[in-house]
Amino acid sequence: MSVVPAEALPGSALAVDETAAPAVAELGPRARLWPSLCAVYRAQLSRARVARIPLLFVATFQSIGIMILMRGVVDGGAEAQAVVAGSSVLVVAFVALNLLAQYFGQLRASGGLDHYATLPVPPAAVVLGAAGAYASFTVPGTVVTAVFGCALFGLPVAHLWVLVAVIPLAGAALAGLGAALGLLAPRPELATLLGQLGMSAALLLGVLPADRMPEAIRFTRDLLPSTYGVEAFARTFGPHPDWAFVLGDLAVCGVVGVVSLAVATWAYRRAAVR
Fold first, then answer.
1. pTM of the model
2. Angle 230-236-238 from CA coordinates, rounded to 5°
3. pLDDT digit string (tens) for 127-156?
4. Fewest CB within a 10 Å sphere: which of 52, 87, 179, 183?
5. What is the dihedral of CA 38, 94, 149, 146, to 10 degrees?
6. Helix, strand, coil proportions of the chain in percent (round to 5)?
7. Cα separation, 145 vs 150, whole angstroms
């Protein structure tokens, strides 16, 4: 009696068709930018909430202290408008530029970028999500600083609603710059130094009235992304604001934000593959 394997039987369910092509596993759909961005934003917001709130108080008190100090040498007019606007945007610079540069510098040094590289999210979602989370912490401090400054210098508060545009646009420009500095710096100490220098530039070039600066310093001031947010906010304190110039400053701030976030995304890709 001969024994025939079951796989060789024509009617058997176990018969193997050698001509059949091997099954190819289907990959899941590629992660889209917006859902990935929202997920990273919520994760970063939850993680940084406890650690960053004390630093937000520091940034707010720092800006309020600067305005109190400047009150002794500035009486009012355009100089007071520049001080209040610059101090308000300084809160954004402290968090979005300084702290974000430190965060990405430490993340790169500790190997944390490897974790994000394994996630099925676009690189832009990581950068935009982290930048948006850090910029969100600046909203209450900026509003408190602006209201306090208006009361201190006797400026009108009718157009404070322009902060709805100034905060996200200036925050995007400064957050993109901070992320790029942190990702491109070879050492976390250098990223911290660059973030501190950027915040110092926003302090000196944004808070001090531009009319008292030398011409060379004014040119450097025009290169700083936060300058256009300061100018847009300061123009709204006048009795009849020129909204065309306000929109122009906000547009420049928005373009700089797009460019800086694109550079930060490129820097993230560059750092993640190393």
1. 0.82
2. 120
3. 888 888 887 888 888 999 999 999 999 999
4. 52
5. -10
6. 75, 0, 25
7. 9
